Amino acid sequence: MNHPFRDMLGEATRLTQGGHLMAATQLIQRALRGDGGTAPVPAASPPPKRPGAGVVIDAEARVIHDAARPAGHPQADTSAPGHFAGAEQWLRASHSHQGRQLAYRLYVPPAQAAHAGPRPLILMLHGCTQDADDFAAGTRMNALARDAGVLVLYPEQVQRANAQKCWNWFKTQHQQRGRGEPELLASLTRQVMAQYGVDASRVYVAGLSAGGAMADILGRAYPELFAAVGVHSGLATGAASDLPSALAAMRSGAPAGQASGLALRPIIVFHGDADSTVHPANGAAVAGAARGSSPGQTTADRAPGGQRFTRTVYGAGSSAAAVEYWQLQGAGHAWSGGSAAGSYTAPGGVDASAEMLRFFLAHRQPPRH
């Protein structure tokens, strides 16, 4: 991170600690746009609206303090993971592949007799401007994973690859098997699987916004690796091939592109119908590309917090649905049911993390012949 950008975020942190939340938000927005200077915007001024242009695919940012930890993970923080020794761990490490390096956090739940044997793994891909700690805090996935005996892997996009730390889902070289970010993320996943003895039939990928778009790409490009996919407020594989087409898809929606040779995986999709950052039509496109001609069964209900939603299930078989599409009424561009400890969350809505985990654990890779 360059020094001006770091200084601006440091000043934003101090403003937040002093209770000047509006000024802190404006300063963060200036930092993300690359404006110079470190002087804060007066707290009395209304925050500027974020433009639809640019590669930022998220809503207003919140400052996440170092003291804010995702519920359910331990206080210990080791520099590099070792073989699982039975203790709950929240690890920080890095992975190198084909000349590229990727930092990540890994949540390892404690050993429990109820979850003996190889355990599942979820790869969680953050949205733009986020990092692993922020995403873990906002989704609360570690707390849920602890009870279910699931490992959770949070890679972090580097700023030199994308100025806003977005996964480059809209570039052709990052939409293919064996190339770019999909290959790097698949390599990281395989390393963690081998190192921790993960159940190869129960490996999943989920993401928010740009991370959701990349999750869809990974599920299609590496169907032998990921048994199911979760996309929250994301876009379909092939919806864009460059920045202009990405902005158009975000603004107006786009059908899934030509994903020749890419397989389909069971998928669960969440999208708010009031999302002004990634058009709601994109969520429908993700689900539509996966369901094919399967008929759907739609039910309408209300979450415990009062949020209305419709849930459409496609291809329900004897054990599990192949596709679930959740339309969240009145919801914007945020992780539904998340925690206010993280950015881009909508506390009180449908618990997307719990529903994803439930959906994932209902699916396994089919036996190989």
Automatic annotation (TrEMBL):
Protein name: Esterase, PHB depolymerase family
InterPro entries cross-referenced by the UniProt entry: AB_hydrolase_fold, Esterase_phb, Plant_Biomass_Hydrol_Est
Keywords annotated in UniProt: Hydrolase, Signal
Gene Ontology terms: cellular component: extracellular region
Organism name: Oryzisolibacter propanilivorax
Example of a GO MF term: hydrolase activity
Region Disordered, residue ranges: 288-307
Matches recorded under PANTHER family: BLL1128 PROTEIN (PTHR43037:SF1), UNNAMED PRODUCT-RELATED (PTHR43037)
